[in-house]
Amino acid sequence: MSIELTRLPSGLVVITDNMPHLETASLGVWVGAGSRDEAPEENGISHFLEHMAFKGTTRRTARQISEEIESVGGDINAATGVETTAYYARVLKDDVPLALDVLSDILSEPLFDPDDLNREKNVIIQEIGASEDTPDDIIFEQLQATAYPDQPVGRTIMGTRQTVRSFDRKQLRAYLTRNYRSPGMVVGAAGAVNHQAIVEEVQRRFSPFDGPAAPPPQPAQFVGGTSIEKRDLEQVHVALGFEGVKQGDPASHSLQVFANILGGGMSSRLFQEVREIRGLCYTVYAFHAPYKDTGMFAMYAGTDPNDLEELMRVCVDEIVKAVDTITEAEVKRAQIQMKAGLLMSLESSGSRAEQLARQMIIYGRPIPIEEIVKKIEAVTVDSVQAAGRGLLSRARPAVSVLGPGQRLESAAAIAETLVRRVA
Amino acid sequence: MSIELTRLPSGLVVITDNMPHLETASLGVWVGAGSRDEAPEENGISHFLEHMAFKGTTRRTARQISEEIESVGGDINAATGVETTAYYARVLKDDVPLALDVLSDILSEPLFDPDDLNREKNVIIQEIGASEDTPDDIIFEQLQATAYPDQPVGRTIMGTRQTVRSFDRKQLRAYLTRNYRSPGMVVGAAGAVNHQAIVEEVQRRFSPFDGPAAPPPQPAQFVGGTSIEKRDLEQVHVALGFEGVKQGDPASHSLQVFANILGGGMSSRLFQEVREIRGLCYTVYAFHAPYKDTGMFAMYAGTDPNDLEELMRVCVDEIVKAVDTITEAEVKRAQIQMKAGLLMSLESSGSRAEQLARQMIIYGRPIPIEEIVKKIEAVTVDSVQAAGRGLLSRARPAVSVLGPGQRLESAAAIAETLVRRVA
User: Fold this and answer.
1) Fewer CB atoms inside 10 Å of the end CB: C or N, chain B?
2) Among A73, A124, A332, whose Cβ lies nearest the Cβ of B339?
């Protein structure tokens, strides 16, 4: 391991991992703010800002931003999440200073030209349209909204056509100034990188973000309920959400093991029972997504409208049953999978840079691999079952159903009833 | 470079690349057969076989197949294409023999139990349903069918509900025996691998595939035309296809550069004109997919129904204009991008194993990086323009439009007219 960390006086952190056998580098800026840091009328502005960052600065036109990176063979991109926004690039080793220059430029000096603003609103409205045409996207937006109604965490990351149309330069500047602050920002890099050189570049370029930390977001409250959308599709898409645990919660590794056993791979219970034994679906899985102060444990499956009630019954049954019947062998397999996955991710410079940056934002320090391994190994059958039991007892589940047929409501009711009987 | 190659007496090739700094390995079996090797009534059987391979062998149940790999922290998966089918795994270095054992077992001793067959038909019918609910999938299936009507290359990889329902054990065995033959199979591996150990494992395990080479597929003929599907969606999805060139064609690198300049990244002409200048779409790109004896050059965009005719005009205009106006600077940028992309892909064991296996299947030898670089560097403005001109002159284009609105036909006609004027 060759992790180096520098915390600048402003609070901004530079964290790097030199991987000496590589010729390329992955690097980026992670900002600890996303859609949940938006006021209701700002819904979608984190994502809009992420788009506008690429639309020109005082030093570069939009075309120059992409051309400067792509003409050295690099890639540059960005992604907006609920709690973080990331801007990242992959380049050959000699081009790291250029990539840092471009990344800092687009974040610190964006122009927000009114014509560009209007054009980019159209682009995002097309992005919203594309997402609405994709059931896999919509079902999770609905699940999130049902789990966290009328809360920033429950709103879509892209916002609505209405909020997107309403944004102006002043709002963008206000959001940027409020949330892109050094104490909540991390520059992460891995691969063919030199820590000291990156620190020097960052010192030179990232001072515009100096200032007090961004305000914390409004606390989230998992509420749950049912959302149903009838749509003329081939499949009925189903997502079930349960209140998980927050980042760093003592139960988080046990819950991760539970998610893995229930729906993490081909040997998982859901895959075996729903797909292999019953042939009810092509896709079925479960995962846990922890946030600062809450967590979303979710299951997804797509099925034939005629099989919907059976699918719903089996999915709920599997989660309920798992709480009492998880075995030593399953826990062991999940632990090994998680440890091997960790090892595999270390071999990619992109995953490595992202892991380190996210650990800094969430925990304020890089988490040594040995420490993660130790926590995974400390998981027991009892702790996994307890983590599963927690899901069923904390809050009412969120149930989302999207598709054709007459029985969407009754299928959703099955889920609610089965879970309530246990809780 | 540490590529080692062994051709067994049966014709089966083992090709490995040891990457000494890695702790994990990627490996797989690539079979030079796919959906275009199917008779009309077999449409979808390559993909069905790929599914059935995981459903149990004389030595392992379906559950054991996934559990054996996942309980050592590995992943196993497969993918069916038009001309190749791949079965691959990623594991820790000590588990390479286990992965090879499982991969050879599922290909050589599949059970094809009648109950499993029926269940898996349901799973695939759900997979077809999920794909039909995804406009991005459907539009390319339509494009392929329009470019190559009534030909294996033009049929969907998954087949139809009707063909899938008709398959039986006898057909599966016949397809397997005909197409999974050592002279057309490659075992590729990269990462923490030892060539000789893999060769020994393969010698022990892959003899069931010995025999004469699989018969070559029926030649493909790019025909073109228009396909339109009205559907109640948010966006109109548009794909345009032009006859490209085959694998190994002297023009293939020039055409790749043309695709890159036209629609390969954020600095590409389509991205700049359609998204950045006009704000007409979120997604727009172009690519070239070469096959044994033909090639598909395609462009995709999704837009608002009201902007469809403008989008169509601009897209066609950009490809037509590019043929005469591509610049030295653009060619240079594309060349650097392709070379950097090559370097980046070398850092991933999965990409490396796949590249080597595909090169063996397509060219019969591993292509040294320096040779690829030399070919990229030999591309000139003239050769790129000539490659673009070839697209417009060879065959009638294929035009696919999917979405809402009254003007799908007239928009499709715009594309045909504009291209014909040039050709």
Assistant:
1) N
2) A73
pTM of this prediction exceeds 0.90? yes
Band (pLDDT 50/70/90 cuts) for residue B423 is low
pLDDT in tens, B234-245: 999 999 999 999
Asked if A134 and B129 come within 8 Å (Cβ–Cβ), the reply is no
Q: Are A189 and A356 in contact (CB under 8 A)?
A: no
Q: Give the model's pLDDT for residue B401.
A: 97
Comparing C-alpha atoms, which of B209, B293, B170, B173 is closest to residue B11? B209
- What is the tens place of the pLDDT at every residue in A50-84? 999 999 999 999 999 999 999 999 999 999 999 99
Chain A residue closest in CA terms to B134:
A134
Are B67 and A333 a contacting pair at CB < 8 A?
yes
For residues B339 and B170, give the distance between their C-alpha atoms in angstroms, rounded to a whole number. Answer: 47
Q: For chain A, what is the HEC assignment?
A: CCEEEEECCCCCEEEEEECCCCCEEEEEEEECCCHHHCCHHHCCHHHHHHHHHHHEECCCEHHHHHHHHHCCCCEEEEEECCCCEEEEEEEEHHHHHHHHHHHHHHHHCECCCHHHHHHHHHHHHHHHHHHHCCHHHHHHHHHHHHHCCCCHHHCCCCCCHHHHHHCCHHHHHHHHHHHCCHHHEEEEEEECCCHHHHHHHHHHHCHHHCCCCCCCCCCCCCCCEEEEEECCCCCEEEEEEEECCCCCCCCHHHHHHHHHHHHCCCCCHHHHHHHHHCCCEEEEEEEEEECCCCEEEEEEEEECHHHHHHHHHHHHHHHHHHHHHCCHHHHHHHHHHHHHHHHHHCCCHHHHHHHHHHHHHHHCCCCCHHHHHHHHHCCCHHHHHHHHHHHHHHCCCEEEEEECCCCHHHHHHHHHHHHHHHC
Taking only the tens place, the pLDDT of each residue in B153-177 is 999 999 999 999 999 999 999 999 9
The span from the CA of B80 to the CA of B51, in Å, is 9
Query: How many degrees, rounded to 5, is the angle at CA A407 between CA A405 and CA A413?
Result: 145
Q: Do the Cβ atoms of A235 and B133 come within 8 Å?
A: yes
Tens digit of each residue's pLDDT (9 = 90 or more) over A249-304: 999 999 999 999 999 999 999 999 999 999 999 999 999 999 999 999 999 999 99
Contacts of A348 in chain B (CB under 8 A): 347-348
Q: How far A276 CA sits from the closest chain B CA (Å)?
A: 7
Active site residues of B: 50
The pLDDT mean for chain B works out to 96
Cα–Cα distance measured from residue A54 to residue A310, given in angstroms and rounded to the nearest whole number: 48
Distance from CA of A395 to the nearest CA of B (A): 31
Q: For residue A133, give the nearest of B235, B267, B279 by CB distance.
A: B235
